[in-house]
Amino acid sequence: MLCPSLPVTAHAYLPLLLQGKWFTALGPSLQKPLLDAAVMRRLQDGERLFSRGDPPCGLYAVLDGSMQFMAVGGTADNAREGIAASIPEAHWFGELSLLDGLPRSHDVEACGRALLLHVPQTAMAKLTAHYPEYWCALARLQSYRLRTMAMLWEEAGFLSAPERLPRRLLLIAAHYHGRHDAIPPLRIVNVSQQQLSQMLSISRQTVNLLLKDLERQGLIALRRSAIEILDFAGLQAAATRAIDYA
Question: How does pLDDT run across 202-216, given as a tens digit for each residue?
């Protein structure tokens, strides 16, 4: 249920949404119909938005907080869940099932309290029928995500944990799903050590060891469920140095 103090129309969030490249590229002629059809939805920490195998349910944008795509690996007897991707404010998701009509491919849940815009499936069907240009825009949104995922898969296969962790911090700070280049990266990264462990598929103890080393170098400062980046250039340099933490 929405808080009474929240704006009651999606258009109130236009300035925030214009911080994203994808939405800005739509132009006013496609932005307005999308917002006209959207409703707002609030989720509590850990609340599931949709699950793997659910039918398509429309397109979403994050207005406050963040959402997590959860991945499951291992065997049926020893299944492990991790974070496949994190979607921050001003970014859209849910386009894959709109493009192929197939069930949802991941569980998606709120990380902390989250406020979303939701353009329902029936509304998206009407919009794409009336404005065929949305199909190209949705394909472009999916391409942003595929490029990011390809980069992460490559890093997981070829880079060590001490290289991947600072890269992931920089990626989160830059709001990697297509934020405008003119917007500076976040200095405070709201991510816990447990979340980093799940994202990188390494133990929480290893994450803690690596973060403390970066803190000793003066590159970051550890906060409660957050990390403050003190030296972006230094963190970028750390991402290129392989250190053996056997």
Answer: 899 999 999 999 999
Confidence of residue 184 (pLDDT cuts 50, 70, 90): low
Q: Read out DSSP for 28-45?
A: HHHHHHHHHT-EEEEE-T
Crossing angle of helices 161-173 and 133-158, in 10° steps, is: 150
H helices within 18-105, ranges in order?
21-26, 28-36, 95-100
Do 132 and 63 lie in one domain? The reply is yes
Gyration radius (Cα) of the chain, Å: 19
Looking at the 3D structure of the chain, how many domains does it have? 2
Domain interval for residue 223 = 160-246
**What distance in Å separates the CA atoms of residue 188 and residue 231, rounded to the nearest whole number?**
12
Q: Please tell me whether residues 117 and 178 are part of one structural domain.
A: no
* Site of tokens 């496609």: 30
Measured N-to-C along each axis, helices 193-200 and 161-173 cross at an angle, to the nearest 10 degrees, of 110
pTM: 0.75
Please write the tens of the pLDDT for every residue from 7-16: 568 999 999 9
Q: What single DSSP character describes residue 104? A: P
Whether the Cβ atoms of residue 116 and residue 57 lie closer than 8 Å to each other:
no
